[in-house]
Each structure stands twice: as structure tokens, then as C-alpha cells.
């Protein structure tokens, strides 16, 4: 699970890391001002807002406290304020509203703030508030305002994980009630997450992670993060970060122009190529992972439904799907590495052909870098390109320097190692098979078996009652069976819809894990070829040649910004 990070704090730390570099080079004042302006207008002004809404005694404040992990909101049975209480948490603004059934002036205040919210958590409880008609009238207003409704069902009865069939029946009725008030495309406009706030608090206060894990809080956070990535606030942050990256690129190029050493210039060029390739690969691999995760999110519901009565078979089929996904991603990364290898091999070969005077102070550095690259290639025992042609250069015979990246041979083991860390099987078992099959499907069985053919007809015909009485009883029986069939169909539709939603959110979370693992594997694979250049630049920085070291650190920060954009939902 990816936590709701404080991206404002992370971005503030990144900005603070860059500012000293601008101070060191006053002639880059225009770029410094542009960097500061983007942070001021596109980053620091963005504070995603989460509104907590619903009946005031359904547990809104309790849910809010567990989301924040602290008892900051007062838990009251009646509304105590006619204003929206705001809490600053992790870079988000959380609005605790007075709630439905509060005095009319309270409700007007709540509605006035609704338009500002990025997402809305609509809290109901399992103890009756889910049946209140006012809930659904307010839901319609939220849906009409274009907001996605995340319904948080507060499990006050303690049924979660014990009597999931009771919770499932409540969820089904919620969907029916939403349709009754005229909410169109219900399936697309809401999702339901069950959370036991009391269990989550007990686990938090008593430091019992197992209780928190059984509270449903992790699923709520997953859903909130998935929905936030689709909001305007996150889009503004992504665009702002992209602009900061562009300013840093201009700053780096300006610093590179200061270098006089041919070797340092070439080293910077090599590292720039490596960085550009990493970013390009990241974007292409991430797009591929998102696409494959979406396909899995659409496929899993069909798999689960088709094998819902055979848990062992279901586990086996899902495991096959996971392995298939792993294999696809590994092959895609290797394909990307193969393309990258060609570019980097040419770059490394051109570096080996740099003309360095044998008496130059750079000659020893040049030899050292080539020796390290040769050692890196020797580890893989594979050459993608042949060794450079024999040539005398600065008194250095580079005929023995194998300019081979070894990327393809190395990639398989590295990728598999990092993908294994995602614990995809465990995540699926706990999220889909446990929470979906273990809660959604069992309730379908009893509802389906309720329906039977009108087998009582012979009993009616064989009784001593008159024909009219028999007819009335038969009609009543048929009506009852029609109602039972309607309930069965509704239950099945609701179950399939919920499975689909859970699988889509799972796919989002899974894609985040896979992207992190893929990036880690690519970074590790390329690191050994960047290391000789970085080490030499670090040595020169220690000797007083600071520009090359500054360029290196700025390029690292630029890459960190790009990783943040990915976390925020960029492809």
C-alpha cells in the first residue's frame, strides 16, 4: 500500500536543496526567479481537500481521526459548530462538516464548501443511518456536482471479517437507494469501503498492527490515493513539477557551458545521456505497466466470478495471471534496455575515443574511468558491441577496453529480484481473494437458493379450499418468488460491481508497486556504468572543481522530481 505522503513537505525539501545552487551562481538569477515563482504559484498553493460528509452521528469524526492517525477531531453525538472544521494533515486539507440532520444553517455551510473538495468521503454506519432518505438526496447533490462519492460504511456492529454477509446486504441496499433518488450511472459515481473505526483506533492506541490491518483502513487509504490522482489538484502539482524539471535542465546546461576540460565535458555528456535514457525508459515502462494493470483490473473480476465457488482453483488461476503479468513486465523492461544499450554503447565508445594529451592532468583520470568500465563489463562476461579498434590515444592503448554494456545479460536477474519485492501474490490474496471473495461472494449463495420453481402448485390444487382462495395463494406465491428473484438479480449485480471496483483500485495500487520495482531495477542495472563518471566528478569536487559536482547533484534532484511526478500519477 502506498501511503498518503506529505508531498508539499517533500517538494519543499527539494526546493530547499536547489536554492543554494542558485545562490552560488548569481548570473543564473533569471532561472532562480523562475524556479521560485513556479514553487510559489504552482506548488505551495496546491492543497488537496478531502471533505468528510454524512450523518453527524455515523462516525465521521472517528473515521477522520483514524485516517489522520491522531485524535484531533472531537467525537460528538450532536453537531457542536455551524462551521466546517479544517485539519491540515500530510499536506492535505481535511474538512469535517457538521453533517446531515444538523440545523439548517449548518447544512448550508457544508454545501458552500462542497465545490472546493477534491474528493468526498460520505460516512454512514451499519446501525441504521444507511437507510435515511436524506443521505441519498445529499448524495445526488454531490453526484450532480461532478464529485466521485467514496462511501465509508462505519462498521459499528463489528461485523467486518465476522459477518460479512450482513455488511454485503447493506451495501446492496445502498446501491438500490441511490438509484431510487435518480442518481444516474450509479456504478461509476460511487464506491463503498467498510471501515471499523473502533477497531482501527484500538489497534493504533495499543500498537497492535494486526487490528489496524483488520479494520479496513488500508483499503480506504488506497481508494483515497487512487481518486486523488485523478483530481485537478494532483494534475496541477504534476504540471508544476514538470516545469521545475525544465528550469533545472536549463540551469544544468548553463553550468556545463562553464567547463573548460574536454574530459569533464564529455563525462557530463555521458551522464546526461544516461539520465535522459532513464527518464525516457521510466515513462515508457510506466505507460506499459499502467496499461497491463488496467487489463488485469478488468480481467480479475471475470476470473473471480467464474471461479467463485472453487477457492483453490481461483487461487491457482490468479497466481497464473500474476506470473503472466510479471513475465510481460520483465520482457518489456528488457526490450527497453536493449534499445537503451545501443544508445549507451555508442556514448561509451565515443568517450573512449576522446583525445587526451598524455601529459594532461586528465590522463590518469581517463585511464581510471576506462579501467572501471572494463571491469563492469567483465562482470557480465558479455559484450553487446565489439571492443574498440586498436588506436593510440594519449599514450593509452584502448584496444583492450571492451565498450560493452552487458545490460541485457544482467537485466533478467535484477528485474526479477526487484519485482519479487512487490509481494504481488500476497497483496492479491489479502486484497482481492480475502476481502472480495471472502465477503462479497458468500452472500450470493443464500440469495440464489431462495428462488425455486412453483412446486407448491400441486398442494394448492389438492387442498379443500375453493378455487378463488387457491388462486390468491398461488398469486401470492408467484409474487413472493418474483420478489426473491429480483433480490437475487440485484445481489448478483451489486456483488459483481463491487468486485470490479475493488479490482480496479487494486490494479492502481499494484501498478504503483510495479513501477517502483521496475525503476529500482533499471537504476541498479545502469548504476555500475554511471559510477566511474560520478566517482571522478566527486574526486574533482573534493579538489576544488565544484561545477562538475554541482551538475551531478542537480541532475540527481531532477531525476527525483521525475520520480515524484510518477508517484502523483503521471505516465
H/E topology pattern: HHEHEEHEHEHHEHHHHHHHEEHHHHHH
Counted beta strands? 8
Estimated share of beta-strand residues = 5-15%
Globally, the shape reads elongated
Rounded to an integer in angstroms, the radius of gyration calculated over CA atoms is: 31 Å
Mean pLDDT: 76
Give the helix tally.
20
Helix content, binned percent: 55-70%
Can you list the strand order of the major beta sheet?
2-3-1-4-5-6
Provide the structure class: alpha/beta
Q: Span from first to last CA? A: 19 Å
| Unreliable stretches covering 5 or more consecutive residues | 380-409, 423-463
Biggest β-sheet strands, sense, barrel: 6 strands, mixed
Task: Walk me through what this model shows.
This protein has 571 residues and is α/β, with parallel strands linked by helices. Helix content is 67%, strand content 7%. The chain has 20 helices and eight strands. It has a six-stranded mixed sheet, with helices on both faces. It has a two-stranded antiparallel ribbon with strand order 7-8. Helix 1 runs antiparallel to helix 2, helix 13 runs antiparallel to helix 16 and helix 14 runs antiparallel to helix 19. The longest helix is centred in the last third of the chain and has 76 residues. The radius of gyration is 31 Å and the shape is elongated. The protein starts with 6 loop residues before the first helix and ends with a helix. 38% of the residues are buried. About 12% of the residues have low confidence.
